[in-house]
Fold:
Amino acid sequence: MSDIGCTYTVECWLRDSKDITEPQVTAACATLNAANIVWNADKGSVLMDVAVSPSKVLTKLENTLRQPVLIRGISNQESAVAILYDDISTMESPTISTVHGLCRLFTLAESKEVVVDVNVNGVAPNVPFDLSIMHTGDISRGTCSTGSPWIRLAELTSSCHGTIQTIFSMNGRLDEWIGRALTLIPKDTKPSTSISLLGIIARSAGVGQGNKTVCSCSGKTLWEEQQENAYSFEARTPVTKPSNNCRRHCCGKC
Structure:
């Protein structure tokens, strides 16, 4: 079960650890071929080295331990996340925005490559999309204000269920990507094809750096943010949230 050419460290939090034992955690991590597993029952956190995508780690732990899990740190290097919303410039009424997924990005100590982990749902099935980093981070008017593509990361095709779940790596400097818009735009631009998605690439916590339990921008606990934003997308449907130019939601940096 290897998605990446080398291993990295990931830190996860469990919402309720009082009934979870170390053997249960170890068994769940073993299904990911994890190494160097460290379980902290007081914090409800587990550290491990894996070679699979963060999304697979999250899904496997949630399904095995039967409770919500947060990824609180990825790699000891640079890491970032972009929450992907409807492109308001293509919407008839820009008052509602839907969270369709997220993209996690991180660098590996063993290479100069950036790992890109994409999880999206609720788009049209069997449609090819361009995943790109745009010149600016201005999403006030959707893709109309982000500028042209700065780096084209990949062409991704949605499944027959309207999902995109993939991971890949490429050369780049993640610190130069942070603050720019990330877009997922259908290659066929006919209105009936599919919606476009976009979000801001925001710096996220590395391993051992994510100690906050309350989001500083919304005032909600991270568990409330997780449920509202459907951060574990494999088993949940897209959610709608109020949207305007400042989009009051978790910044993704907590």
Remarks:
- The CA atoms of residues 14 and 192 lie 41 Å apart.
